[in-house]
Amino acid sequence: MRYRLGVDVGGTFTDVLLLEETTGTTFRAKTPSTPADQSIGVLNGIAKVCAEAEIEPSEIGQVLHGTTVATNAILQGRGARVGLVTTDGFRQVLQIARSFVPGGLAGWIIWPKPEPLAALENTVEVVGRLAADGSEITPLDEEQARAQLRRLAGAGIEALTISLINSYANDAHEKQVAAWAESELPGIPISISSQVLPEMREYERTLTTVANSYVQPEVSRYVRNLDRSLQEKGITAPLSILRSDGGLVQSAKAAESPVSLLLSGPAGGVTGAVWFAEQAGYTDFLTFDMGGTSTDVALVLGGEPRIGRETKVGDLAVRATSVDVRTVGAGGGSIAHVPELTKALRVGPQSAGADPGPAAYGNGGTEPTVTDANVVLGYLPAALAGGEVSLDVDASRTAVATIADAIGLGSPEEAASGIVDIVNENMFGALRLVSVQQGYDPRDFALVSFGGAGPLHANALGRLTGAWPVIVPPSPGVLCAYGDATTCVRDESARTMIRAFSDTDDAELRTALAELATSAAARLSAEGVPTEQQTAKYQVDLRYQGQGFEIPVDLDASALESGDLLSTLGAAFDTEHERLFSFLLKNEREVINLRVTVSGPRPDVAFQPLEEGGEDPSAALVSTNDVWMDGEYAKAGIYDRAKLLAGNVVEGPAVITEMDSTTLVLSGHAATVHSSASLLIAPR
């Protein structure tokens, strides 16, 4: 037997899923996250799931991990002290930045500008200059450059970024400075912009490379520690890390380019959602991943997640390929509060996290959270995670009652209903960002819900968006780990090539794209993926001449082989531009960047359809419970999901429980069990 182990570390829980490839049998575990050292929670989960499966850790063939280490380093300001080497005259590139201030009309008054990840006192200039076409204008001055590097060594930097003007067109100067840095700053990790982001725009290229340096020591330490701990537990399987774009990369390479891991965790959920939605027969859908701290949403079209060229974490926005995920601070642990000034109920973004957690957990938490509201409303059973977490209903009522008192409501139930309504609206706003604001009508999509808290709110989100059916995969609380275990190895090559359509031809574009594909394929082959099992996807960034931004246009292999490449690109660009902005221009089109992603094969995981059982779900009925719905109490059936069979129809109001999550079916709706074991919720 061959086992694949998927691991996803969240803000509250660490999810582990063990998958036996030949039968599709899964074993799962959910353990509290350990923020001080994430590897502790990971190892606890692995030990637990191996014991459940009755296997030795040495039988695991692959370990596939979605991590938030890089993300947390950015959010918590725990990154390295970064030194930055720039071209003479560009020392303040990070301070000048871009003329964008968030927060509306008066944002510039109240917005606290974040400090750059590389301080000005740790930024030096070197003499030497390249032109935009890569030709040398001024040669490097070795003596001056070494003196500047020695200055950084004396400043005690922990990581070094080298970002020189126009290095995307010629990396010779950056490589030379890196060679000198290796002798002047031994042991210091070095990131050069022509490798991290070989594209135009010096600010974005510099910022992205500095971010890579900022998180590199932290990620490297974590990967080394986890690798060593796995070895000590008898797991000799290779460790792979999930990239932000949903592909896997070997741990050593991930440590070299950690900026590609900033959305590693959310990408795993989207990848898992694609797998289960395909089994249920849906390829166009929105994803809704609600955990304990935050909610991530994305859009999938034709079975492919939309990929963005910007990754945003907190105030930091870097140019890195990632699944186009939007995040809001709304989770099961989000704290409800009533500001003294406005007396208006708010929910989040503050979270009770894993420690102390919601009041219902009985770990000392006293503030009212979304989880407490669901407990008060009767939507959550008395125990979570298969009975491992008991809920304190009285503590939840006491916590939520403080909200009722603060805003003058008559009962904790009314306050709890208000908390749930507000958090649902917050998440609805995030879903609009990836659908309506991108030119898509959510009513044309299904909605795939997962995460520990997602299925509790999924039916309500379906009602708000009009996206039907709402699909709740099996084991939704560990779906991110399932995505980690069912995705493929991936690599990417990119290049800036600024050409007006009239200044290039099909042959030049085809040659450049082929070179990028060859480069990425070679790196994938080095990781053990046979060439015949590799597939390439092509993307070209286009704009009208004079525009200050580009639109990525996907290009399939058949179009690349056809003789009318520019016409195909132009037509696709016009379609996308009109969808986004509702107009076209007569300006000439212009090629800006080329990008090729090469992927290995998806794992061949067996699928076993669920046994047929007819429409009657009564064999899975465990009990009934009073739930507060539509302003009054109603009787709801409590169902054990493990006992539901294909074809069963659960009519709301109902609560469907399982080890890692709970699904709420509202009045006037019904959940049909699909043969893939997913629940399909729709209005009756």
Write the topology of this structure.
Layout: E1 3-9, E2 13-20, E3 26-32, H1 38-53, E4 60-66, H2 69-75, E5 82-87, H3 93-96, H4 107-110, E6 123-126, E7 129-130, E8 136-138, H5 142-154, E9 159-162, H6 172-184, E10 190-192, H7 193-196, H8 202-232, E11 239-242, E12 248-250, H9 251-256, H10 264-280, E13 285-290, E14 295-301, E15 304-305, E16 307-308, E17 311-313, E18 316-318, E19 322-323, E20 326-328, E21 334-337, E22 346-351, H11 370-376, E23 383-384, E24 389-390, H12 393-407, H13 412-434, E25 446-450, H14 454-465, E26 470-472, H15 479-485, E27 490-500, H16 506-526, E28 535-544, E29 551-555, H17 557-561, H18 565-581, E30 589-599, E31 621-629, E32 632-640, E33 649-651, E34 654-657, E35 662-665, E36 669-673, E37 679-683
Parallel strand pairs: 1-4, 4-11, 5-6, 5-9, 9-10, 13-25, 25-26, 32-34
Antiparallel strand pairs: 1-2, 2-3, 7-8, 11-12, 13-14, 14-15, 14-20, 16-19, 17-18, 21-22, 23-24, 26-37, 27-30, 28-29, 28-30, 31-32, 33-36, 34-35, 36-37
Helix pairs in contact: 2-8, 5-6, 10-15, 11-12, 11-13, 12-13, 13-14
InterPro entries: ACX-like_C (IPR049517), ATPase_NBD (IPR043129), Hydant_A_N (IPR008040), Hydantoinase_A (IPR002821), Oxoprolinase-like (IPR045079)
Domain Acetophenone carboxylase-like C-terminal: 507-672
Pfam family, one: Hydant_A_N
